[in-house]
Amino acid sequence: MNFEQVNALNKLLSSQKRIAIVPHKNPDGDAIGSTLALSHYLSKKGHKTHVLAPNDFPKFLKWMPGAHEILNFERHNTETKKYIAEAELIFTLDFNDFGRVGQMAGCLENASGDFIMIDHHQQPSDYALITYSDVSMSSTCEMVYTLIDSLGDNDLIDKDIANCIYTGIMTDTGSFKFKATTSKTHRVVADLMDKGADNVEIHQWVYDTNSPSRLHLLGCALKNLVILEEFNTAYITLTQEELDRFNYEKGDTEGFVNYGLTLDNIRFAVIFIENKEEGIFKISFRSAGSFSVNEFARNHFDGGGHINAAGGKSERPLQETIDFFVSLLPQYKKALTE
Questions:
Q1: Staple partner for 24: which of 7, 59, 95, 181, CB 3.0–4.6 Å?
Q2: Residues 151 and 51 placed together within one structural domain of the fold
Q3: Per the UniProt record, which residue ranges are transmembrane (predicted)?
Q4: What average pLDDT does the segment 83-93 reach?
């Protein structure tokens, strides 16, 4: 954070406030970790905080300190609207446009509180009084650590906060293997471990609690893998029927898209997952090297994200979606093969 942002935030937080903290729809480890960590920190500073999620989040994150107190907009609609309307400050974490919160967008657009954005995705919208945006950061959780440290409160990071921040950094960096993982990231993680973050336990909770049905779903996804050698590209499809057959639960497909990038010479990996309720195919894009899936998703699939990780959607049927996707690849062949 820069000097002006630190001063402005210190001023806003100088007296007790009613604060709402909001992650994006379908929150992942970074979204849940950052919102819970910030909530714990602000509560220790004497503020009244509520974490308000647009919808539910995966079971493998529900062990996190404070997770049971998160209000789900779909399930606790009246309470969530009330807390947003009453909030004097609204922190939005791990997203930078109201389009990322689904049906919750209208409530945020009509809110009277001041917004503070904390996010590491590209091209932030201009809705916040304070916009802390840094695309060079590994994760929003690393940004929350930096915020707390910049406010002079590093000593307030206890075991609960450390576990939350560690979880978000670990999951958003692919266990510290992605390009955005810097030497600073490792120094932050070292400090979190010194403050009580249990790296072994966190890894077990996140990665080692699979159900048999999830592993069977992974097998189905890998069976559906298609390799387009000419474009160094691989894609996976999962239909609603396949999800239902293997008793899909929220979070079960987390990380599936990354299997494409484990193949030799593959630089672009994609997964298309049907959501019949919303009438769309949700798409995750991953890349290795300099190929920007953020631009690809923004240009063609109403999405966006990071250079090497982004999301999008398609309202076309599966085969039309695949045909359209494949038809785009020739114009990117040079970037994908050189």
A1: 95
A2: yes
A3: none
A4: 98
